[in-house]
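quick one
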Amino acid sequence: MEKIETILSKKFQNAFKAAGYDEMFGRVRRSDRPDLCEFQCSGAMSAARNYHKAPLAIAQDVLKKAEEGNKDKSFFEAVIAAPGFININISGEFLASYIMEMDEDKFLSIPQTENPKKIIIDYGGPNVAKPLHVGHLRSAVIGECLKRLGRAVGNEVLGDVHLGDWGLQMGLIITELRARRPELIYFSDTAPEDPAEYPSEAPFTISELEEIYPFASEKSKTDEEYKLKAMEATHLLQEGRPGYRALWNKIMEISTADLRKNYARLDVTFDLWKSESDAQPYIPDMVRYLKDKGYAYYNEGALVIDVALPEDKKKIPPCMVLKSDGASLYNTTDLATIVERMKLFSPDEIIYVVDKRQSLYFTQIFRAARKAHLVDEDTELKHVGFGTMNGRDGKPFKTREGGVMRLETLLDEINTGMIKKISENKNVREEDTEKIARIVSLSAIKYGDLSNQAAKDYVFDTDKFTAFEGNTGPYILYTIVRIKSILEKAGKGTAGTLLPPDTPEERNLMLDIGRFGSVVSEAFEELAPHKICAFIYETANDFNRFYHETKIIAEPDAGRRGSYLHLLGTAEKMLEKSIDILGFSAPDHM
Ligand code: ARG
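structure w/ arginine:
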């Protein structure tokens, strides 16, 4: 379905043509001065330069033509404002019919892209054997939303968790486990080649694993010999030593099961559970290619690709492909992952949702990949860099004791508070309390994050985010639940034909609803979920104003009542679709 501004643009493009001007001047946009008008065409000013004519005269010519198909102002009302703007308000009839059409539309008016792309979104990025902490929250929440947004406008989108499973952390765990339990078969010199010959049960639980890693990591900081051992173990693992490979498999098994559980709690899902290690087989050929083609060269022993450009304002250092000891690094893996993704999926676009502190890094990677033609010319690489999640003191979010907070702990704390709140609510049955609290908590966390511009740091303020009033997830859910309960009270089949709006409040609500398709496409173009949040907050406010001014079920005129109920039904559908894109849902009661 077309956006309202597209429908108006066509109308005015025809009018420009009919009046003897180029139709390209006829574009209509949403006005940035809603106090003056809803839509605006400023093409007469540009046309004036081309045709050496006063903009006012052009605007008059055009409007006369446009009015020909607009008998009794059934479509729009327009006035000309100096020096040649055409200010447009749409008619209530048009607005009502647009929303009725939207209601029937499979995509609820979201314009579907003409050239669907295949997009890979790299988000999550957790490291195996380390618990998810709050630092992982933003990537998961924003990435999941971008995935749903990309699909909503008609693209094919694959989410990839891109596990960190190949670094020193694996060597540290192996080393520590070996020190504690040298008798395990994994460490024996005669460890079997065949993975099937190892015990099916892992020699640790997830809690043990999560204790071992930080312990080993701390120890390696002061114990040089220990660190060397861990590096050696990492190296042997990467070389493919059978016992270590088998142990690594166990670590992966236990760790991913736990990660899946945690992401499921956030309603975050991945189509691909690929990891850094999957890219390793691509490294040797890639390195050979980079050297043979002369894209990479040795500098002080390290293999690097120059990525600086003459127009750079600050220095962009070369992208290192291999360290001077020949070892591969984070960069190598990301470049090889690009090679792998091109080979397996040939995507049109890869989007990385990673902390903005890695933005120089991604500049290097993207330039290196482009320069060496590791990606097709028209495959886009984008980094959506997000800011830090801070605590109320303005410093990176920590536990009360000052440690790194586990994501699980944060979710539990918010849930507990929410259960208390919800259980005070008489509309909720006791047995539903926990389930509803979980839904509402998730809305608080996700909306709290997504309503901020991704690139900015933000303060995670639990009290504010979980409040039922203000610009919060729970407020949006509360509004949806209110609409649901009115519709429920009215009963099935009570909605009638949508009539033109009766009051300014109703008109505002209808205008909001009519903007939905525009907002979603813009949010995707700009990879900006906060635009959807701002939109639904405004819509929720406008709904609540309308609701306070209007008797809906008690409306005596049956046609009017049916129209109100129709409008509420569309509003509800649209709000539910919006929060689904954001990555959460609404309960039936709260
Ligand atoms: N595991 C990495 C980290 O913890 C994040 C990975 C991001 N994705 C990527 N393709 N580099 O920093």
